[in-house]
Protein: Gag/pol protein
Amino acid sequence: MPVFILPCRLVVGSGRFGRKTNPDRPMLTPTFLNGNLEETIYMQQSEGFIILSQEQKVCKLNRSIYGLKQASRSWNIRFDTAIKSYGFDQIVDEPYVCKRIINNSVAFLVVYVDDILLIGNDISLLTNIKQWLAAQFQMKDLGEAQFVLDI
Structure:
């Protein structure tokens, strides 16, 4: 389960990179359905979805689903490839925190399982990132984060 550690939370959350905006929370829904499979996988028909008189048939998976051993890996590979192609760089000590800098504008994308915290100093940049994310993945925009919990 991807998590990021406290020192990074303090830096990202403090707004030390300029004029602070409230963090937005685009949520990818559902995460594991956004992953692509690298191999052919078959599964038994799910209880409640069994086709009568064809109980012995199996289903070929077209996409990753929750519960597969490969699900989180395939999702992480797809997400990582996509955000790097859009110009985000991973922070070396925090693989689940990415930054994108364009001139004086900066955006941080903090990933926690299927939730994203998007923080930056330029609202138009954040809007463009959210639009790009929506074009790449099934997602729901939860709007501004009212608070961020810390452990």
Observations:
- The longest strand covers residues 94-102.
- The beta strands are 24-28, 42-44, 58-60, 89-91, 94-102, 105-112, 115-120, 139-144.
- Residues 71-85 form the longest helix (15 residues).
- The helical segments are 6-14, 71-85, 123-136.
